[in-house]
Design brief:
Layout: H1 8-17, H2 21-24, E1 26-28, E2 32-38, H3 43-48, H4 56-61, H5 88-106, E3 113-117, H6 124-133, E4 141-145, H7 150-158, E5 165-170, H8 177-190, E6 198-202, H9 205-210, E7 218-220, H10 237-243, H11 245-264, H12 270-284, E8 289-294, H13 302-314, E9 332-337, H14 338-341, H15 345-351, E10 358-363, H16 373-390, E11 407-412, H17 417-437, H18 446-464, H19 474-481
Parallel strand pairs: 3-4, 3-5, 5-6, 6-7, 8-9, 8-10, 10-11
Antiparallel strand pairs: 1-2, 2-11
Helix pairs in contact: 5-10, 6-10, 10-11, 11-17, 12-17, 13-17
Amino acid sequence: MSQKNNTERSIAERLDADPGRMSAFATVTERWRLDAGLTPIDGEAWQAGVPFGADAVQALFGGAIVNSSEQRPALHPRLRAPDADLPDAFRASRHRMLDLADRLHRGATPIRDLVHVGIGGSDLGPRLVVDVLDPSDSAVRVHWRSTLDHRGLERLLSDLDPLQTGLVVASKSFGTRETRLQAEAVRGWMGETWAERTWAATARVDRARDWGLAEDHVLAFDPGIGGRFSLWSPVGVSAAARIGRARFEALLNGAHRADDVVQRTPSASLAGRLATAIDQLTRVHGFSTLGIVSYAPGLRRLAEYLQQLVMESLGKRTTPEGEPAPGPSSPLIFGGVGTDLQHAVFQAVHQGRQRHPMLLLGERPGDDDPHGFGVEQAANLLGQARTLALGRTDDDPQKTLPGGNPVLMLWARPLDEVALGELLAHFEHAVFLLGRAWNLNPFDQWGVEEGKRQADAFRTVLQTASDPRDAQFQALIDWLRG
């Protein structure tokens, strides 16, 4: 799809023609402000919102089957509900997880280091929460392990005491090979009493039990909770151990606030506005990328988190009925920390031949800013937003910046536990609304599953010296075998 209405002139002319555009395209809540005025999105389209279907939200919150390929509901919103509204199994699971996290946080166990092994949704969400909210008052340090890196693991373990180290194995299926391999390596290093200091966060209690864990060391959650939506489940135990029970409960409260708003006014909610922006930029204006750039340093991992949440959910080419999807799906997400990217990626965005929509995140400067860092971050965000969207003219063509990059700005005030919970839940709901609007199932990931199946086949070839199934790979396999 060609890019349309995405030049400097389009955005600039819209601003010139409508002096109130920035206000009209602002969505303001108690803790967040989204500004979409620096985009080519039409005012009527912005107000209309994304066409997700009137029954979609009711189906999600009502526990209906919304994951059609696996015939499952998506139950992650229940994890954020108040205790009084929880089914018994969900309430018991929450309290077991938070009780354990509280003991670890307070130092009521011998554990002083906690190795959290997980990948994808079992790593990205909890790690992001700690980045944003860690007050450094916990009795335990948390060490995150996702990638298979034996040197990195050996360096980590060489600095730890095995008798004062705990292990959390976070895996919905308890079958993810990268997670199991690392967990087994840590288990072997911990010694004979490893099971006393190890817990599994999983939907497969049977597999955790077969691995050697007692029932009371398995933090179970419902299989209707998808991996990339599992932060709120026992997968978040390590984050809760680091930030403390009260802060994690405030995070859940923030997410529940978002759930409540989305149920009442889905189109006008922050989730609805984010969904509308992505829908318009992707399907109407033809952009295939979206930069997620944080000028709030705590959100440095948000781009990674959204790469999984958005791209794994919406990176589909067929509808649930098996028909070709009638348009592009997920944008390719890139990003990182704002002031760092200004010295790298931004040059290509400012003066390269392609235009790229950008979502810039910041935090309103607070009173406790002794070094002026908060003001500097906000000033850089505003300066980059203006330049990315509107550009700069110069007599020297080499110094001319064409602009035309649509810019969304999302500001926190302040970025606390409740605000973070709201933000992450609104992004989850935005993905759900887009899935409905685009007629895609955002709760399966068959591309991921096929990649794992192919890896199993090649593992057998590499370990047994058998011939690869595809002769084209023979020379490469021979080289890998040495």
